[in-house]
Amino acid sequence: GENVEQHPSTLSVQEGDSAVIKCTYSDSASNYFPWYKQELGKGPQLIIDIRSNVGEKKDQRIAVTLNKTAKHFSLHITETQPEDSAVYFCAATITGANSKLTFGKGITLSVRP
Amino acid sequence: NAGVTQTPKFQVLKTGQSMTLQCAQDMNHEYMSWYRQDPGMGLRLIHYSVGAGITDQGEVPNGYNVSRSTTEDFPLRLLSAAPSQTSVYFCASRTPGSPLHFGNGTRLTVT
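Structure tokens for the assembled complex are given below, as produced in the milestone run.
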């Protein structure tokens, strides 16, 4: 089955700096890669996703890049703000009615004011 | 729409007790699933369902039962709680081709 690795487990940045979170996956057939943000006491919420036919996707201050050859994908957050502090999960799956998301272990991002 | 609603928010059980974690969604999603979240382990799939009357096991199904009698509801049952089941439980749903929508979780402690 799919295995998703997420490193490091914690990341601390200064407000205004950029943050990059990297994930690797094992199944070359995986074709959908979402990123979720989890704030304290809440469930994960989708912030951006990318499909395997696209190399990069942007939405305001966040972007995701995908390298299918190396089987890794990254979340980029620019101009970080204190409200970006949260746990971020990457995931991978092969899309379909029965598809099951495999999640990384999560990274705690802290943005220092 | 309320989205995915989980009850209760918090629960404390003694070893050996049983309980049901409730999950309901009002988005007419066919797919529903249960995850548990433990420190350093991320989100692990317990059971999932692709429609009413259909359920299947995920990565960590032992100790848990599910049923799906309606599209809206997907309860998770612990028949005999164990301390190893202390965790935060998340229910999630989606329609084909769409992202997973999560509830806000149930924090369960088994003593």
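The two ends of chain A are 41 Å apart (CA to CA). The interface with chain B takes residues 6, 9, 34, 36, 41-46, 49, 89, 95-98, 100-101, 103-106 of chain A (CB under 8 Å). Further analysis is deferred to the final report.
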